[in-house]
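tl;dr need the bound structure. longer version: we got a ligand (adenosine-5'-triphosphate) that a collaborator sent over and nobodys looked at where it sits. i said id run it. heres the input, straight from their email, havent touched it
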Amino acid sequence: MSEEPLIRCRDLTKVYRKGRMEVAPLEKLTLDVKRGEFLALMGPSGSGKTTLLNLISGIDQPTYGELWVGDREISKMRRGQLTKWRASECGYIFQLYHLVPILSAYENVELPLLLQKGLSRKARRSKVEGALELVRLSDRADHRPSELSGGQEQRVAIARALVADPALLVADEPTGDLDRESADQILDLLGELSGVHQKTIVMVTHDARAAETADRTLHLEKGKLVESRGGVGV
Ligand SMILES: Nc1ncnc2c1ncn2[C@@H]1O[C@H](COP(=O)(O)OP(=O)(O)OP(=O)(O)O)[C@@H](O)[C@H]1O
Ligand SMILES: [Mg+2]
Protein backbone atom coordinates (compact mmCIF):
# COMPACT_ATOMS: atom_id res chain seq x y z
CA MET A 1 0.00 0.00 0.00
CA SER A 2 1.35 3.44 -0.88
CA GLU A 3 1.22 6.33 1.58
CA GLU A 4 -0.15 8.59 -1.12
CA PRO A 5 -3.96 8.83 -1.08
CA LEU A 6 -5.88 7.87 -4.21
CA ILE A 7 -9.16 9.29 -2.89
CA ARG A 8 -9.42 12.62 -1.06
CA CYS A 9 -12.79 13.88 0.18
CA ARG A 10 -12.96 17.31 1.81
CA ASP A 11 -16.15 18.62 3.47
CA LEU A 12 -18.14 16.33 1.22
CA THR A 13 -21.84 17.05 1.57
CA LYS A 14 -24.81 15.53 -0.22
CA VAL A 15 -28.27 16.96 0.11
CA TYR A 16 -31.21 15.31 -1.65
CA ARG A 17 -34.29 17.43 -2.17
CA LYS A 18 -37.65 15.86 -3.00
CA GLY A 19 -40.44 18.42 -2.98
CA ARG A 20 -40.33 20.03 0.48
CA MET A 21 -38.37 17.18 1.96
CA GLU A 22 -34.60 17.49 2.41
CA VAL A 23 -32.25 14.64 3.31
CA ALA A 24 -28.54 15.18 3.94
CA PRO A 25 -26.95 11.74 4.32
CA LEU A 26 -23.39 13.13 4.14
CA GLU A 27 -22.33 16.27 5.99
CA LYS A 28 -18.85 17.76 5.66
CA LEU A 29 -17.25 14.38 5.36
CA THR A 30 -13.47 14.19 5.20
CA LEU A 31 -11.73 11.01 4.12
CA ASP A 32 -8.45 9.84 2.56
CA VAL A 33 -8.07 6.36 1.07
CA LYS A 34 -4.52 5.30 0.22
CA ARG A 35 -3.53 3.72 -3.07
CA GLY A 36 -3.84 -0.05 -2.77
CA GLU A 37 -5.88 0.20 0.46
CA PHE A 38 -8.86 -2.09 1.07
CA LEU A 39 -11.38 -0.03 3.08
CA ALA A 40 -14.60 -1.40 4.59
CA LEU A 41 -17.48 0.96 5.20
CA MET A 42 -20.20 0.03 7.68
CA GLY A 43 -23.18 1.82 9.19
CA PRO A 44 -26.92 1.54 9.71
CA SER A 45 -29.37 1.43 6.82
CA GLY A 46 -29.94 4.92 5.44
CA SER A 47 -26.65 6.28 6.84
CA GLY A 48 -25.38 7.25 3.38
CA LYS A 49 -23.04 4.38 2.46
CA THR A 50 -24.37 3.92 -1.08
CA THR A 51 -24.52 7.70 -1.45
CA LEU A 52 -20.79 7.89 -0.64
CA LEU A 53 -19.92 5.09 -3.10
CA ASN A 54 -21.96 6.84 -5.79
CA LEU A 55 -20.02 10.06 -5.22
CA ILE A 56 -16.62 8.34 -5.18
CA SER A 57 -17.44 6.52 -8.42
CA GLY A 58 -18.84 9.62 -10.13
CA ILE A 59 -22.34 8.19 -10.55
CA ASP A 60 -23.68 11.09 -8.49
CA GLN A 61 -22.19 14.47 -7.61
CA PRO A 62 -21.75 16.19 -4.24
CA THR A 63 -23.83 19.22 -3.33
CA TYR A 64 -20.79 20.82 -1.66
CA GLY A 65 -17.20 19.89 -1.03
CA GLU A 66 -14.23 18.53 -2.92
CA LEU A 67 -13.63 15.02 -4.14
CA TRP A 68 -10.37 14.01 -5.81
CA VAL A 69 -9.43 10.63 -7.27
CA GLY A 70 -5.73 10.72 -8.17
CA ASP A 71 -5.12 14.03 -9.91
CA ARG A 72 -8.73 14.41 -11.11
CA GLU A 73 -11.24 16.55 -9.25
CA ILE A 74 -14.34 14.41 -9.68
CA SER A 75 -16.58 16.99 -8.02
CA LYS A 76 -15.86 19.48 -10.83
CA MET A 77 -16.28 17.15 -13.80
CA ARG A 78 -19.28 17.27 -16.14
CA ARG A 79 -21.50 14.25 -16.67
CA GLY A 80 -19.95 13.26 -20.03
CA GLN A 81 -16.42 13.52 -18.64
CA LEU A 82 -17.47 11.46 -15.62
CA THR A 83 -18.87 8.67 -17.80
CA LYS A 84 -15.59 8.49 -19.72
CA TRP A 85 -13.52 8.66 -16.54
CA ARG A 86 -15.56 5.88 -14.93
CA ALA A 87 -15.18 3.56 -17.92
CA SER A 88 -11.41 3.39 -17.43
CA GLU A 89 -10.76 4.43 -13.83
CA CYS A 90 -13.48 2.97 -11.62
CA GLY A 91 -15.19 -0.43 -11.46
CA TYR A 92 -18.50 -0.86 -9.58
CA ILE A 93 -19.55 -4.16 -7.98
CA PHE A 94 -23.20 -4.49 -6.89
CA GLN A 95 -24.89 -6.74 -4.35
CA LEU A 96 -27.07 -8.36 -7.01
CA TYR A 97 -24.35 -8.52 -9.71
CA HIS A 98 -26.38 -6.70 -12.42
CA LEU A 99 -25.16 -8.92 -15.24
CA VAL A 100 -27.00 -8.73 -18.56
CA PRO A 101 -29.02 -11.98 -18.65
CA ILE A 102 -28.91 -12.59 -22.41
CA LEU A 103 -25.12 -12.20 -22.64
CA SER A 104 -22.50 -14.84 -21.83
CA ALA A 105 -19.98 -14.32 -19.03
CA TYR A 106 -17.42 -13.37 -21.69
CA GLU A 107 -19.74 -10.80 -23.29
CA ASN A 108 -20.68 -9.30 -19.92
CA VAL A 109 -17.02 -8.81 -19.05
CA GLU A 110 -16.33 -7.32 -22.48
CA LEU A 111 -19.02 -4.60 -22.10
CA PRO A 112 -16.90 -1.84 -20.47
CA LEU A 113 -14.25 -2.27 -23.17
CA LEU A 114 -16.80 -1.51 -25.90
CA LEU A 115 -16.99 2.01 -24.43
CA GLN A 116 -13.28 2.50 -25.06
CA LYS A 117 -12.54 3.60 -28.60
CA GLY A 118 -9.64 2.20 -30.55
CA LEU A 119 -9.34 -1.21 -28.88
CA SER A 120 -9.05 -4.02 -31.42
CA ARG A 121 -11.09 -7.20 -31.03
CA LYS A 122 -7.85 -9.04 -30.31
CA ALA A 123 -6.85 -6.58 -27.57
CA ARG A 124 -10.32 -6.90 -26.05
CA ARG A 125 -10.09 -10.68 -26.14
CA SER A 126 -6.81 -10.74 -24.28
CA LYS A 127 -8.15 -8.37 -21.57
CA VAL A 128 -11.41 -10.33 -21.12
CA GLU A 129 -9.54 -13.65 -20.94
CA GLY A 130 -7.11 -12.15 -18.41
CA ALA A 131 -9.96 -10.88 -16.22
CA LEU A 132 -11.84 -14.20 -16.34
CA GLU A 133 -8.61 -16.01 -15.43
CA LEU A 134 -8.08 -13.68 -12.47
CA VAL A 135 -11.53 -14.59 -11.07
CA ARG A 136 -10.90 -18.25 -11.98
CA LEU A 137 -13.81 -18.59 -14.38
CA SER A 138 -12.06 -19.20 -17.70
CA ASP A 139 -14.02 -22.45 -18.01
CA ARG A 140 -17.38 -20.64 -17.69
CA ALA A 141 -16.82 -17.97 -20.38
CA ASP A 142 -19.71 -19.24 -22.53
CA HIS A 143 -22.21 -19.56 -19.67
CA ARG A 144 -25.07 -17.14 -19.29
CA PRO A 145 -25.78 -15.71 -15.80
CA SER A 146 -28.70 -18.16 -15.32
CA GLU A 147 -26.22 -21.00 -15.82
CA LEU A 148 -23.95 -19.79 -13.01
CA SER A 149 -24.14 -19.91 -9.21
CA GLY A 150 -24.54 -16.64 -7.29
CA GLY A 151 -20.87 -16.70 -6.28
CA GLN A 152 -19.82 -17.29 -9.90
CA GLU A 153 -22.10 -14.46 -11.08
CA GLN A 154 -20.42 -12.13 -8.60
CA ARG A 155 -16.98 -13.23 -9.84
CA VAL A 156 -18.06 -12.42 -13.42
CA ALA A 157 -19.23 -9.02 -12.15
CA ILE A 158 -15.82 -8.49 -10.53
CA ALA A 159 -14.10 -9.44 -13.81
CA ARG A 160 -16.31 -6.86 -15.56
CA ALA A 161 -15.39 -4.23 -12.93
CA LEU A 162 -11.65 -4.79 -13.38
CA VAL A 163 -11.33 -5.61 -17.09
CA ALA A 164 -10.43 -2.01 -18.02
CA ASP A 165 -7.74 -2.09 -15.29
CA PRO A 166 -9.11 0.77 -13.14
CA ALA A 167 -7.12 1.90 -10.08
CA LEU A 168 -10.33 1.98 -8.03
CA LEU A 169 -13.02 -0.60 -7.28
CA VAL A 170 -16.14 0.18 -5.26
CA ALA A 171 -18.37 -2.62 -4.00
CA ASP A 172 -21.82 -2.20 -2.44
CA GLU A 173 -22.51 -5.19 -0.16
CA PRO A 174 -20.81 -7.59 -2.62
CA THR A 175 -21.37 -10.61 -0.34
CA GLY A 176 -24.83 -9.60 0.88
CA ASP A 177 -26.66 -12.21 -1.20
CA LEU A 178 -24.19 -15.08 -0.91
CA ASP A 179 -23.71 -18.11 1.33
CA ARG A 180 -20.68 -18.09 3.63
CA GLU A 181 -18.41 -20.15 1.35
CA SER A 182 -19.08 -18.06 -1.78
CA ALA A 183 -18.78 -14.89 0.29
CA ASP A 184 -15.35 -15.99 1.55
CA GLN A 185 -14.21 -16.61 -2.03
CA ILE A 186 -15.30 -13.10 -3.02
CA LEU A 187 -13.54 -11.57 0.00
CA ASP A 188 -10.34 -13.55 -0.75
CA LEU A 189 -10.52 -12.28 -4.32
CA LEU A 190 -10.97 -8.65 -3.23
CA GLY A 191 -8.06 -9.08 -0.79
CA GLU A 192 -5.90 -10.41 -3.64
CA LEU A 193 -6.91 -7.53 -5.93
CA SER A 194 -5.82 -5.04 -3.30
CA GLY A 195 -2.78 -6.91 -1.93
CA VAL A 196 -1.30 -8.30 -5.15
CA HIS A 197 -2.73 -6.05 -7.86
CA GLN A 198 -2.66 -2.79 -5.86
CA LYS A 199 -6.31 -1.93 -6.50
CA THR A 200 -7.85 0.57 -4.11
CA ILE A 201 -11.11 -0.92 -2.86
CA VAL A 202 -13.98 0.71 -0.98
CA MET A 203 -16.46 -1.95 0.14
CA VAL A 204 -19.75 -1.34 1.91
CA THR A 205 -20.81 -4.24 4.11
CA HIS A 206 -23.22 -5.07 6.93
CA ASP A 207 -21.14 -8.12 7.84
CA ALA A 208 -18.48 -7.57 10.53
CA ARG A 209 -16.63 -10.71 9.37
CA ALA A 210 -16.42 -9.34 5.83
CA ALA A 211 -15.13 -6.02 7.20
CA GLU A 212 -12.37 -7.87 9.06
CA THR A 213 -10.76 -8.88 5.76
CA ALA A 214 -10.19 -5.21 4.90
CA ASP A 215 -7.17 -3.11 5.97
CA ARG A 216 -9.38 -0.58 7.74
CA THR A 217 -13.03 -0.23 8.76
CA LEU A 218 -14.97 3.02 9.01
CA HIS A 219 -18.50 3.49 10.35
CA LEU A 220 -20.82 6.04 8.85
CA GLU A 221 -23.10 7.49 11.49
CA LYS A 222 -25.34 10.51 11.08
CA GLY A 223 -23.37 11.81 8.11
CA LYS A 224 -19.96 11.44 9.80
CA LEU A 225 -17.24 8.79 9.69
CA VAL A 226 -16.00 7.06 12.82
CA GLU A 227 -12.89 4.90 12.73
CA SER A 228 -13.19 1.50 14.41
CA ARG A 229 -10.02 -0.34 13.45
CA GLY A 230 -6.82 -0.11 11.40
CA GLY A 231 -4.54 2.85 10.76
CA VAL A 232 -5.38 6.48 11.28
CA GLY A 233 -7.19 8.12 8.36
CA VAL A 234 -7.09 11.86 7.84
N1 LIG B 1 -31.84 9.75 -5.10
C1 LIG B 1 -32.28 10.05 -3.88
N2 LIG B 1 -33.23 10.98 -3.68
C2 LIG B 1 -33.64 11.30 -2.43
N3 LIG B 1 -33.17 10.73 -1.30
C3 LIG B 1 -32.23 9.77 -1.43
C4 LIG B 1 -31.73 9.36 -2.72
N4 LIG B 1 -30.80 8.40 -2.54
C5 LIG B 1 -30.72 8.20 -1.20
N5 LIG B 1 -31.57 9.02 -0.54
C6 LIG B 1 -31.72 9.11 0.92
O1 LIG B 1 -30.43 9.30 1.50
C7 LIG B 1 -30.26 8.51 2.69
C8 LIG B 1 -29.06 7.62 2.54
O2 LIG B 1 -29.32 6.60 1.56
P1 LIG B 1 -28.24 5.49 1.16
O3 LIG B 1 -28.84 4.69 0.06
O4 LIG B 1 -26.94 6.14 0.91
O5 LIG B 1 -28.14 4.63 2.52
P2 LIG B 1 -27.32 3.30 2.82
O6 LIG B 1 -26.43 3.59 3.99
O7 LIG B 1 -26.68 2.79 1.59
O8 LIG B 1 -28.47 2.28 3.32
P3 LIG B 1 -28.62 0.68 3.10
O9 LIG B 1 -27.70 0.05 4.13
O10 LIG B 1 -30.06 0.40 3.43
O11 LIG B 1 -28.26 0.34 1.70
C9 LIG B 1 -31.57 7.79 2.90
O12 LIG B 1 -32.32 8.50 3.84
C10 LIG B 1 -32.25 7.81 1.54
O13 LIG B 1 -33.63 7.82 1.64
MG1 LIG C 1 -26.96 1.09 0.40
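gonna send this back to them w/ a short note. Residues 16, 18, 23, 25, 43, 45-51 surround adenosine-5'-triphosphate (ligand 1) (CB under 6 Å).
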